[in-house]
Structure formats: structure tokens, C-alpha cells
Amino acid sequence: MTNETRADVVIIGGGIIGSAIARELSRYNLSIVLLEKHPDLAMGTSKANSGILHAGFDATPGTKKALFNARGNVLYRQLEAELGIRLKWIGSLVVALEPDDLHVLEDLLSRGKENGVPKLELLSRNDLLDREPNLAHGVVGALWAPTAGIVSPFDATLAFAENAVQNGVKIWLEHEVEQILVAQGRVTGVVTGRGRIQTPYVINAAGVHAGSVAALGGDESIAITPRKGEYLLFDTSLGDCVRSVLFPTPTKVSKGIVIGPTVHGNLFIGPNALDVADPGDVGTSAQGMSEIIVGARRLIPSLGLGSVITQFAGLRAVAAHDDFIVGSSSVVHGLVHVGGIQSPGLTAAPAIAEAVVEMLRELGLALNSNPRFVPVREPHLSFKEKSNKARESSFRLNPLHGRIVCRCETVTEAEIVEAIHAPCPAHTLDAVKVRTRAGMGRCQGGFCGPRVSALLSRELNMPLSSVRKDKSKSFLYFPRRGKGPNLELNPKFDVAVIGGGPAGMAAALTARERGAKRVVIIERDRELGGILNQCIHNGFGLHRFNEELTGPTYAQRYIDKVQADPAITVCLDTMAQEIKPNFSVFVSSASRGPFEIAARAVVLAMGCRERTRGAIRIPGDRPAGVFTAGAAQRIVNMEGFLPGNRIVVLGSGDIGLIMARRLTLEGAKVLAVVEIMPYSNGLTRNIVQCLEDYDIPLYLSHTVIEIHGRDRVTGVTVAKVDEHRSPVPGSEFFLDCDCLLLSVGLIPENELSREMGIMLDSETSGPIVDQFRQTSVPGVFAAGNVLHVHDLVDFVSEESEIAGWAAADFAAGSLLTEHPVLAVRAGDGVRSVVPQQITLVPGAAGKIRLYLRAAVPMPKCTLTVSGGQKKLLAKRFPVAKPSEMISVDIDILDLEHMTEALCVSLKDGV
Amino acid sequence: MSASRKVICIVCPISCIGEVSIEVGQDPTVHGYTCKRGESYAIAEATNPMRLLTTTVTVRGGVVPLLPVVSSASMPKDYIAVGVQMLSEVVVDAPIETGQVVYAKILGLDVDIVASRDIARQTL
After folding, report:
1. Which of A351, A482, A604, A900 is deepest in the core (most CB within 10 A)?
2. Is 60 exceeded by the pLDDT of residue A407?
3. Given CA atoms A303, A309, A311, A316 in this order, what sign does their dihedral have?
4. How far is CA B65 from CA A641, B57, B91, in A?
5. Are A23 and A101 members of one domain?
6. Residue A537 domain-assigned?
7. Searching chain A, which residue's CA lies closest to the CA of residue B68?
């Protein structure tokens, strides 16, 4: 985690107000950070209130409450569709219990008209009782407001927040603001317990703490009184006892006790009102309970208490003058207060958010529209709401839907796991509860609580003793004495890395650095290190470590680090056989047989294999003595045997050149290296130090046209080739050898990738990836030679770090991939380029390195990167060869507004 | 007496091919390179070419049968082949740690042959 960062706007407080503002601001091209001190959103006033979308007749005309209530009520009608917020426009009734109350209703009616509330109507006793037959029979009439509605305040907050995150807002939970930095009367940043953020604009949406937050910036003008309100919640059996929200006629002292259904079909009564000193006081009292029961029974005398499921209290934030505070600080420029948001704050939130954006504009914040703003949040249907047929298909997609964890509310394990890894993740028991309703039913978590806790422990890789109820320190369980449970059984890994070579090790280590809690490396060989173990020559690490290492030493450096980290599990002699869509890797191990390894993200690091004789179709006999250069390398360097005594190498790839030298030093005679192309495919260093040092001839534009020998190779026929690579008749000559080594290219090993439907690039033969090395299957990353064949391991490590980093982020749910992508194409003179696409993450900055290979050798050339007519950059290279990968950095900011594919090309000349 | 030698530079991907002329009693002269680093590489390569030695030696009691080794510093190019041949007779016992000296002062040079990886002991 970075300890110093920068944002255009910082919002303090993740309640309905902070979240609505974050979402409204995400329409603009800004970097926005929302800070919330609790482990979840909506933990203050937004969590416990009546959940009413008020029609707007109650507030005194001309006040902010009146203005924002009316506008907010209208806005929710659009938000309902856009954000998939579940609303019920059930209307509200203010009930007159005595004839005198009717005057009050008339006052409310005229106030409502002044506030612009439509369709208000006075109902007669009969009309009222028709509508609400359970009402006390002594009622005399009511004010009917059909535009009122109900909503779950948590759902509304989460809808704003999730859409904000989708549009690039960063939400940092458990970040309590300790200081607001001010210089020369202007906001310059905030300090949290976990680092500092530079920003010119801070929005104080801290609810009951708005006064103390304002004071952190030196503004003492805000005074908030917490006013407690207690509630009782009934189960769904009483949900239809009323059709609309029922208010008693307000008196001068109180608005009275409300009765209403909730969006989820429960019934609630409350709240009373009690000013408290402690902004953390949400305890309920017997006195308060009887107060609300008595109040509710005035309206519904038959209300029984047998189906009460819980009691709770919430705090309203009340400002000194009783109206909302929505305005700039008079003391500090750049500080905007949104305080005193009591009822109708939930209704007003989207309207307040609009007003705050306008205020920021007036304060000088540049508001350019965010081209990637998506106003829509995918609607979410819970398992319980689905038809049996839809439930069956959910189960087929994710078998975790087969396990019902919460019986009262029919919540499946799949829904809970999804909530834990959602864009606004649930990391506490209550966070799971408010998202999935697990624990909200009759038993109030008595059955599912321990089970949900166990899922949190499993999914977040933490012991049960780290699971919390709701707040930062609300730990639920303590370890008992003795050894306790074995937590190592079937652990779920954040990242599973397939392959323990240089790519796999670098990815695993970086994933850990990036915060992955458990990582597994699945390696089919008996030890880590991959192909480096047999590359005993020097020449590795010049870029990475600035020294010249041998292959085994380069590997050893990574092996040491992997072995020093107990959170990296290494499975040796273990072969990955299948990657399932939920990222479980089905493996077979020498010691345990077949089993499954569960993970949240996968890094493919299987490396590559060599092209064989079959792939290049050499005619002739099929005797013993034809090997790929890499197989020969393993035989010589790891097993201690020779593949032959008189050797011809076909192909001038690096392994072939290295083996020509190695075999010479081991006493064999290397007769020739034969290369079909007019240039070598190996590094110049290897031509010099492997061939020239030992006087081994290199035949360019030649190839082996026939292999001789029945049991063992007895020789090969070599011929010159023309420009079409066809043998030139008459140019043939015979080489008397007993071994032919093939060094004719490498192919990324993508059987696993192909089986899981990952899209491959026909040129590199590796997966198509974006700059995070994420393949076409989200959550599956690829790096190293499985992605494209590298010539230097140093770049394999570099690339694998990118993949490991991104995989850890994906596992943590913080790598958001639902963004537009820009294709990157290989143009003239370029054979291949990686990454093949760029994901346009809003607010991203920095550089992206493109790796490419030239199609043919070119002395003095110019590399250009362009998108449509726009040329992004041109870079000169003194030389470009197909055998040496080249790289170029492009600036992400240059890609803004880019719609056409990027094209990378190499042209002769400078 | 004078001699000239073609030397391909390996310092950077340009791979200049230049020539080094050596005249007895005089500093060598070079031409055909595009940078100073190339020129000094070419002179060293023409007058006193140096290489690292890498090969394997036999391991006794290890989880793998061979140990890759490397010289602790570059040594004259014409010592490499004989050094490799000599080391083919060497046997070391596991466990072995990276950097451990397997053969000190090879061929009388101030260069040691060291292990280039760890090898654990084989447990039965």
C-alpha cells in the first residue's frame, strides 16, 4: 500500500450522502477517494433509519430540507432503473386520530403544495379504512401522499457506492481521518491512520461526526447533536398488516411513531427521539421500546409482539438550526460540509449530491465528463427471488448455489462468497448480512452466523478469531487453549501459479508482496527452477541483478525467497490437469494422487516447449540420435550423458548455439550449425562465444534435407536454400554425424489455456493479454514463455511481476476489468507485440511497456506507435533483429479518448 | 610484426564488426566500432580474451546427480577447455550451497570453481 497518494476530491464518510456524492462525481474525469472509518459502508445514520422516501410535505417551505426532499424523490425514480435500487412506491398516510388533527392535515397539505409535492389528497375515514383496515376504528381521516416510497437504506448506499467504484472511485474502508491539512486557508490534504492523501477538495460527509471532522480542518462552526431513535422489526408474517407508511398526526413535540412495511416484506415501528451525548450510543432501552409500542398501537391497536425479530437504534445527525448544512466552509477553501442530514436525508441524498458537485465547480474544480461513465448497475436477483428453473440454472453455473447457508432467508453459499468478493466487499458478518440477508430472518443468525463466519474465514484466509461482527474491533470469537483446529486443511489460495520456473516464482513472490495471503506454486518437476536448472552457462541476470549469473544461480535467488516465505506452498511432482471456471486447479501429484487446489486467481507460467522434427518435416529415416537441443541439454547437464559424439545442429536458436559449445567442451565434435534463414536466430554473443570460439562453422541459408541411418543416425544431407527457402539442386553435401540436434524454435505451452477457452494469438502462440497480463478469461493471467518466447530471463521476471501483482489484486477484488479495451496490433515490420490489448482503466496513469519482435533484421530503423491518424511516438533503433526482443514505453495518458486500435510498426531508416 | 583481427562486438545489439590491429611494441589500434565501450571490448578480445567457465561436476548423496559450477571470475579463454576436462573428474558430497568452493585456484589461476546452486542431501 502506498503511504502517500493524490486525489482530486476526498470524501469523508461512506454513508448514503458520501456514496451518493461519490457516484455523482464519478460522472467527471476525476480521481476520487472515499474514506470510511468502519469496515463497511452505511455504518452510521444510514444504517438504522426508517427507510422512507418522503413525499416532501413535511419540511418548512424554503428550507434545504424542502428543496432537496422534493428533488430527491423525483431523482429516485430514475435511479431505481439505473442502479437497480429496490424501491416500493407504496405511498404514505398521515392519520388523524382526533377531529382537531384534521387542521394539521390541512396545514400539511398546503405546505406540501408549496413544496411542489404532487398528488396530495385528503382521505375520508371510510376511504382510509378501505385502504388500511387494520387501523384504529376511531380514526377520522388522513393525508394521502402517493409519491412516498420505501427503500432499504443500505441497498441504496451500496448501489451508489458500487456504481461509483465501477466508474473509478476508490473506496478505502477502515481509513479514519486524523487530520485535514490546510495551508494558506486552503485544503491541501488529509491524513488517515494509514497514510496521507494530497487533495485540494475535501467533502465532510461524516454524519454525526461532521462537527469533529470539520474541527480537524480548523473549522469549529459545525455542531451536530446525535438524536437516537429506537425501532422494532417484525418478521414477514406481519408485512401486509399495513399497505402504506403510516404516520400519526405530528404534534409540536414529536412526529410520532411510524408503522411501515420494509422493501423486504417485514414490518417496522419506530422511532422515538432522544438526544444523546455520545455519537456511538445506539443502545436500546425498555423505556424506549414501550414508548414506540404504545405509539404504534395508537394506530394499529391489534399489533401483537409475538413476531418481533429484533430491536435496534440509530442516530440522526441534528444541526443546531435543524435544517441541513450543505455548503462550503467559511474558514477553509476547498472544504465542503454536508451535515445535519437527518430525515428526509435518505430521500434528499441524490439531490444533495447534485448540489455538492455544483459547489465544487464554483470552488474551481474542473469538471470534464468521464468518457467511461456507466450510469447503470447490473440488477441483482437474489437466489430466493428466483424461480425454481432459474435456481437450477444458477446451480449449474455455480454449484455453491446448492448449499443453503441461511435457511430463514434462503441465502446460498455462492451468494455469500460473491458478496465477500464484490466491488464493495463484505468483510464482516453484518456486511454479509446486509448484502445477502443471511442472518436477517427469524433466527437472526442463530443458525447461519457461525457458518457465515467460517465462510469469511475461508474466503479471506484468516482464522475465525479475526472475523468481526461489524466494527473494526468487534471480534466475535477467541482462540481456545490447546492446539485448536487445523486451519491447513484444504486451504483456499489467493493465487495459484502453474509452473515453478522463473516466471512462476517471480509471479508468486510479487503476488505475496502485493498482499495475497496464500499462494501456491504447482510444479511438475521434482524441483523449482524450471528450464534454468539445465541452463548451466552464464549470461543471466545482467538486467535484473546487474551481474552475470548462471541459470541455476539465477533460479536459486528466487528459490531462496520462495522457500523463505511460509505463505507460499510449493507442490512438486504435481501436474496441473485442468483449470476450472471457479479457478480450482485439478492436479495430480506423485505423492497424493489427484486432488483439487482452490484459488481466486490463476497465473499461467507453464513456459514453452521446443519445436520438433515433426514440426519442420525433415524427410528420411527415423533413427535414434535426433534430439531437440533442450532435451540434449537436459541429458548432458542434468543426467551426465552425451546425445552423440559427432553432432550437427539444425537451427541457430540460442539453445542450439549453447549446446554446440557445451558438447564441444564435453568432448564431442560439432561439425556444423545449419540455419535456413540468411541470418542467425541467436544472440550475437552466442554466435561469438559458442561458435567462433570453437571454430564451429555456421551455414546460413542452408538446411538439412535428409537424415540417414536405420538404428542410429549415420549422417545428414545438407543443401543451400534459395530466397523461398527451397533447396538449391546441386548444392547438397553430406555430413558424417551420429546426432542431429534441432534448435528450430520454441512454442508456448498452452494446452491448459486452450482447454479453458482462453484466446490465443496466432503469432506468439500465447494467450492474448492486456497490460496486466490478464487473458481473455478474467482472473487468469499469463507470463513468461507461456505468453511469448523470450530471449532473456530478466524480462520473464519483469513480466511475471506484472502478472503476479495483478493476480493478487484480482484475488482481492480490486482489479476491475469491466472497462473498454484498446487493441494493439503488429503493423509493418513487426512480427508480434505483447500485450495485444490495453484495458482503459479510468484514472490510470503511468507507462505501459510494449514488447515486440521485428519481422526481419533491420539496421537503423524507426519504431512508431500510432492510433488511427494520431501518432503517439516514434523511437529510433540502431538495429532491430528478430532474435532480440525490443521494448517501448507508451504513456497511458496519451491513450485518453483513443478509440482506434494502436498499431506498432518498424520502418527502415531514421 | 603486425597482425589484425576481425572482432564482432557483443556489448550491445548493434553488434559492430570492426578490426583490431596489433603491432609489436605499440598500443593496439581499432576501427569500425561506434562507441568507446566497443573499442575497449574489441582490444581486450583481441589481446587477452576472457571467459567464465561453466560445467558440471559429479555429486555424491544429492537429490540430483550433477552440480552445475561456475568460475568465480573470468579466466583466459584457452584455459576453459582444459579446465572443463579436469573438472569432469571432480566429485563433491551433498549438501551443497550456492557459492561453495568446489575446486580452489584452478590451473594455478587466482580463480575458484564454485557451486552455482544448492543441492540437498538425498534422504532415504
Report:
1. A604
2. yes
3. negative
4. 11, 9, 10
5. yes
6. yes
7. A536
Cell readout for A518 is: 496464500
**Burial of residue A369, with CB atoms counted within 10 A of its CB: 0-12 exposed, 13-18 middle, 19 or more buried:** exposed
- Split into its structural domains, chain A has a count of 5
Burial tier of B83 (Cβ tally within 10 Å: 0-12, 13-18, 19+) = buried
A344 and A441 assigned to the same domain: no
Among A815, A839, A865, the domain-final residue is A815
Residues A698 and A750 in one domain: no
Q: Do B117 and A538 touch (CB under 8 A)?
A: no
For chain A, how many helices (H) and strands (E)?
20, 51
Range of the domain at A688: 612-744
**Residue range(s) in chain B whose domain bears CATH number 3.10.530.10:** 54-115
Q: Do residues A559 and A641 share a domain?
A: no
Q: Which three cell numbers stand for residue A904?
A: 506498432
**Neighbour tally for B64: CB within 10 Å:** 18
Q: Are both A456 and A557 inside the same structural domain?
A: no
Residue of A482, A408, A395 lying closest to A445 (CA atoms): A408
Q: Which residues in A have their CB inside 8 Å of a CB on B? A: 526-527, 529, 533, 536-538, 548-553, 555-556, 559, 637-640, 664-667, 684-685, 687-689, 692-693, 878-879, 881, 884
Cα(A508)–Cα(A801) distance, integer angstroms: 8
* CATH number of the domain encompassing residue A77: 3.50.50.60
Q: For residue B98, list chain A residues with Cβ-Cβ distance below 8 A.
A: 553, 556
Q: What is the DSSP string of A400-423?
A: GGG-EEETTTTEEHHHHHHHHTSS
C-alpha cell at A218: 480548523
A486: pLDDT strictly greater than 70? no
Taking an 8 Å cut-off on Cβ atoms, the answer to whether A879 and B10 are in contact is: no
What's the pLDDT at A415? 94
* A550·B68 Cβ contact <8 A: yes
The CATH number that domain B54-115 falls under is: 3.10.530.10
Q: Write down the ipTM of this complex.
A: 0.90
Alpha-carbon distance of B12 to B39, in angstroms, equals 12
Same domain, A713 and A567: no
Contacts of B80 in chain A (CB under 8 A): 665
- Pairwise CA distance, residues A63 & A71, whole Å: 13
Region of poorest pLDDT, from A23-32, A464-473, A555-564 = A464-473
Q: Are residues A113 and A206 in the same domain?
A: yes
CA dist., res. A2 & res. A464, Å (int): 28
State the CATH number of the domain containing residue A895: 2.60.40
What is the enclosing helix (H) or strand (E) of A496? Answer: strand A492-498
